[in-house]
Design a protein that fits this description.
This protein has 179 residues and is mostly helical. It has one domain. Helix content is 71%, strand content 0%.
Length: 179
């Protein structure tokens, strides 16, 4: 792996720790194992942070969906609500499904943790397998960052959908409350 094809998260970690990729596998470096361990700890910390943050976004989306569904139910049941508003509000209920579509990618574990290094217990330690494993883990981190960013963007869209539903609810229900 050269500097040009090192995943972004791995490159950032190496920069912060003041390490070079090849230094982690240099036979002359007595701290290579400790340095690899530090890099792996950082990579797993990134994964934990992304999982946690994405989980919070999905919980927030679920709360918005519940409130939006409540308002939509009121509007759809109300006989004074114009049909086009009822249909539009029901379509807006599809918007909160966007964050889970992207956010659930964060929680899919398709990568086997240390699956490359320990395919078979009889295999002797191979530095290339460790390189591949670290590169794969860093690639997983980069993909999860992208999925998390899309989940966040879709949460903003969910907020807009909720506000639209709320505006329609106020528009339809408020004239009756002022009597």
């Amino acid at each position: 792996m050269t500097d040009n094809n090192i995943p972004r998260q791995l490159g950032a970690i190496l920069d912060v720790l003041g390490l070079e990729w090849e230094q982690l596998f240099d036979k002359g470096n007595k701290d290579a194992g400790k340095d690899r361990e530090r890099v792996l700890i950082w990579l797993y910390r990134i994964l934990d942070t992304l999982d946690n943050k994405t989980g919070h976004l999905l919980r927030f989306t679920a709360l918005l969906l519940a409130a939006q569904t409540f308002l939509a139910g009121i509007l759809v049941r109300d006989s004074q609500t114009p049909r086009w508003i009822s249909r539009f509000v029901l379509l807006l209920l599809l918007v909160p499904l966007l964050p889970p579509v992207t956010g659930l990618h964060v929680f899919w574990v398709r990568w086997k943790f240390f699956g490359t290094v320990r395919k078979e217990r009889a295999v002797a330690r191979d530095e290339q397998l460790i390189k591949n494993e670290m590169g794969d883990l860093a690639g997983v981190c980069d993909r999860r960052v992208t999925y998390h960013q899309w989940t966040l963007r879709f949460c903003y869209i969910c907020i807009v959908a909720f506000v639209l539903t709320l505006v329609f609810a106020i528009k339809v229900i408020a004239p009756f409350c002022l009597c």
